Amino acid sequence: MAGPAPDVAATRVAVRRALESFGLTGRPVLVGCSGGADSLALAAAAGFVVPRAGGTVGAVVVDHGLQAGSSQVAQDAAAQCQGLGLAPVEIVPVTVAGTGEGPESAARDARHAALTDAAERHGAAVVLLGHTRDDQAEQVLLGLARGSGARSLAGMPVARTARPGSSVQIVRPFLSVPRAVTEGTCRALGLTPWADPHNADEAFTRVRARRVLPVLERELGPGIAAALARSADLLRDDADALDAAARTAYEQLGDPPWSASHLADLPVAVRRRVWRELALRSGSPSGALTAEHLRAADALVSRWRGQGPVDLPGGLRLHRRGGLVSLL
Predict the structure, then answer these.
(1) Are residues 135 and 83 in the same domain?
(2) Of 186, 227, 230, 268, which sits most exposed with the smallest number of CB within 10 A?
(3) Contact (Cβ atoms closer than 8 angstroms) between residue 166 and residue 113
(4) Does 267 share its domain with 216?
């Protein structure tokens, strides 16, 4: 008997390896499915792999309600998941609240909250998401364009906790899988993916990044997407180590006011992460905290000339008096 098409086999191997890597084999799984090629291919792969390893697999389709006909798109996605043998399959409508970080960020936050709630409600250990190697490369490219630091350039992690205090894991099995493979999987299995019109709207920076990648491939040679994704993996290890060092330093420093000389003894990369830790724990919104804020905070130690206080998002203010740095 002939085996599955190569693209189908690749997606199944990716799901199996991801679940094995994080000790999730045999556990209840939910797939976050938008109806696009990536998430449909993921639903098909999980529907094949998970039951054979002793687990159960369902799907959640989040309807953001941001486009005309979104409810029909959600129903079509749910029907295809059911046809692949996933159960339960649930459609969850969400309200996307306006935030200062833009509609994409607000939609993503609403979607992740809905997926995590559904996983906890159904007793699932993991939510699988269909981001591909191309998505990872686009993320890194956007970080480069913005002049972001190592954490942003590290891209999306393969696995993370869904939210603080939750036992649910978010896992992305396809971060090493090209988008062409998920599209080929859908063709091989006769699935009908939804084409999100936002993916052609150049008002979104991610769409413009997606169009730049083929140009880079043509001008610099093939393999750019894979190289960018590989760089993200390497930078993630570095960022994780520096973040851990910063958390340790933060705990050792204790509560403000802090000794400026003790802060000055820290490596710059660690010290800037200490400023970030301080700001976030004190109530600064993470999306509003920029590299410029952190540079200004660090100047209270590295380039102290008697300058005034530094304003941080969330109504916070850092200032230095003599040898002490305090938070107002």
Answers:
(1) yes
(2) 268
(3) no
(4) no
Q: For residue 163, is it within any domain?
A: yes
Mean pLDDT of the chain: 90
Residues 193 and 83 in one domain: yes
Half-sphere exposure of 80 (CA within 13 A, CB side): 27
pTM confidence score: 0.85
* CATH classification at residue 312: 3.30.465.60
- E strand map for the chain: 29-32, 57-63, 89-93, 126-128, 159-161, 169-171, 258-259, 310-312, 316-321, 324-327
143-177 exposure pattern, b = at least 16 Cβ within 10 A, e = fewer:
beeeeebbbbbbbbebeeebeeeeebbbbbbbbbb
Nearest to 108 by CA among 85, 90, 131, 87: 131
At residue 102, the 3 state secondary structure works out as coil
pLDDT at residue 327, as a whole number: 86
- Token pair 């029907």: residue: 79
Contact (Cβ atoms closer than 8 angstroms) between residue 46 and residue 128:
yes
| 89-93 and 57-63 strand pairing | parallel
Q: Please tell me whether residues 185 and 52 are part of one structural domain.
A: yes
251 has pLDDT over 70: yes
Q: Give residue 328's pLDDT band: very low, low, confident or very high (50, 70, 90).
A: confident
Taking the CB of residue 114, how many other CB atoms lie within 10 A of it? 20
pLDDT of residue 97: 73
Structural domain that includes position 284: 254-327
Bridge partners of 171? 128, 159
Q: Is residue 39 part of a domain?
A: yes
pLDDT in tens, 76-92: 999 999 999 999 999 99
Clarify whether residues 75 and 183 are in a common domain: yes
What's the CA gap between 73 and 40, in Å, rounded?
13
Average pLDDT over residues 41-54: 98
- Residue 212 and residue 271 in one domain: no
